[in-house]
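FAQ
Q: What does a multi-component entry look like?
A: The components come first, one per line:
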Amino acid sequence: MTMKTSFAFALAGLALVVLALAPLVLPDYWTGVLLGMTGYVTLATAWALFSGPTRYVSLATVAFFGVGAYTVAVLNEVMPYPLVLLCAAGIGMTMALLVGLSTLRLAGVYFVIFTFGLAELVRQTVSWWEVNVTYTMGRYVFLPFEGRHIYWQLLVLAAVTLLISWAIGRSRIGLALKALGDDETVAAHAGVDVTRIKLLLFVISATIITLVGAIQAPRWTYIEPSIVFNPTVSFMTLIMALLGGAMRLWGPLVGAVPLFLLFEWLSVSFPDHFSIILGLLFILIVFVMPNGVLAKFDDLRKGNRA
Amino acid sequence: MTYSFAEAVGTARRLMTCATAAAVLATAGAPQLWAQDAAPVTIGYAISKSGPNAGGADMTVTPNYELWVEEVNAAGGLRMPDGSQRPIEVIAYDDRSSAEEVVRAVERLATQDEVDFILPPWGTGFNLAVAPLMAKFGYPHLAGAAVTDKASDFVKRWDSSFWFMGGSVDYVAAFTEILVAEREADRINDKIAMISVGDGFGIDLVKAARPSFEAAGFDISYDKTFPPETSDFSTMLSEASNSEADTFVAFSYPPHTFALTKQAKVASYSPPVFYLGVGAGFPVYPGIAGGSVEGVMSLGGIDPDNALNAAYRAKHEEVVGRAPDYWGSVLIYASLQMLAQTIERVGLDKEAVAQELSTGTFSTVLGEETRLENNQLRAINWVGQWQNGQFVAVSAEGGPGTKPVSLPKPAWE
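Then the predicted structure of the entire assembly, as tokens:
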């Protein structure tokens, strides 16, 4: 490990400790903000893990997120919580494998449409199952967690996700991914097992997303499909990762934190105009910095030097 | 993307309402309007102003919050135990129909804005989402727009929670009672055709209805659940018609309720008992259905002889610009009246307020002596029927506050 990386690790570790201690001094509301923010940082980073290098834009985030939350809702009374999380991860992984095996040969806009459909499909399947088989709509999650407990779990997951993202970026897989993102055909000819790598990434990313849903579920007490399969989650994740830059390790984080704070500020200050401002903002991001903030900064720096 | 478009249209439309509300609130916030310079009582709420829940919230909950605040402030403010009056100041957030938003908004109201009281959001799910927080921060939780059979369990779990809309079992039991009386009078046979929307409300009611109907000796000859996106009911209606049931029951949401009425008219399907879900108690229902809806039954209903209720409806129409619905609105408004009277008796101490709500007797639009049983409002009209252009509360024989049910339903005009 070079000096520079050790220093970066020390810094990140320090930031993690500070963040972990924050709920002890902050009022509940700010813990809630940190919780929401950490959730989206994890989602965006996990999303970028697969969609960044491969450039497969996935709108299936909420499909996995919702499955995670539902798993907790169904299992929280029959087994201990750590086991429930393990089950959620297992279910998310299996689902990602099945979906990945059958669809990762799709490319471009077909993949986008498919993933959007997947979220709807999962939601309808869960609804159908609840309506026709279990006869329950709406399940209760009574776990003794307060905001900060959920926040700490999310913080750990966020750190792990960033670590995975970092490790992949340095590994042979990372190199293969870079080739794959630039040109799939060339990568395949150069001996990269394209499908296997895409599948691996997709499964890792989906499992993390499932866990985010599972960890956040106890916060809502009551869960039904329309609550946990809210397509906004997919869109927010996407726009956050794109704003920061999906090709970089810290990109999704850099996008998620300011956007989340901005949304929060908007809903406090302009509760009645939120949707309008949000729409304008999306248009602005796409037009002004299509490659993300970090890339924009690089461009500006280069521009100054030239 | 039709969803976003519809949302944008909805937002534009709501902006108008919000402008009015803002004007109302601006006046409310201006202290020079009051003779006494009392510090305001802050009341906060998070409600779905956008997203899929906005329609329901805007029909049943938000207008009543605004009406109540305006009325109280026009009268000089909330009265305190010492006789002084303090105006209400409102802090309102949009939860954007997201469970995470509503939870955070309540945390914000409790720990950042430090409001004196928090009014509940719309819907069973969202009321449950905020219930643990309301209990944790010690706020009395007057869960208005939440239908649940588990209210007694929830009261045990959160002893400062109050439930104002009853549970599915209650609504179904009252309706079954009417059906049994009708069958004994030989006006209907013992077959029931039942359809339900595959979403929270529909499933909850149908789950209560199946055992209730069967225990009363009815045969559910047609039983079908449809997805919320359904708009064509012609097949279901003809199958229901073929099942030879005299009773047709649909636990539906407003879009289905309206579509079912229109399509039943087209198909000239007019069984003796025609019972629909949410939407049949909306004042706009006869207009949307295109003419007379005489005899159509649903949940809720009002007592047309109750002068207090009539005055409330007139005032609602005057201030909000449209009439309240015939089911939840009046219950929400009554819960606010109870809160105001509680504050007049015990002041702003949250624990004392919860205690008094639990045990006190109040004069509300529902009656001179409204009280809660085990933190639940039970004086609810369970079954309503359109009679002479009004959606009135009915029971088999009629009684205090209810009219006798009038069956069989006349044919469509």
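Q: Is there any commentary attached?
A: Sometimes. For this entry: The first strand of chain A starts at residue 139 and ends at 140.
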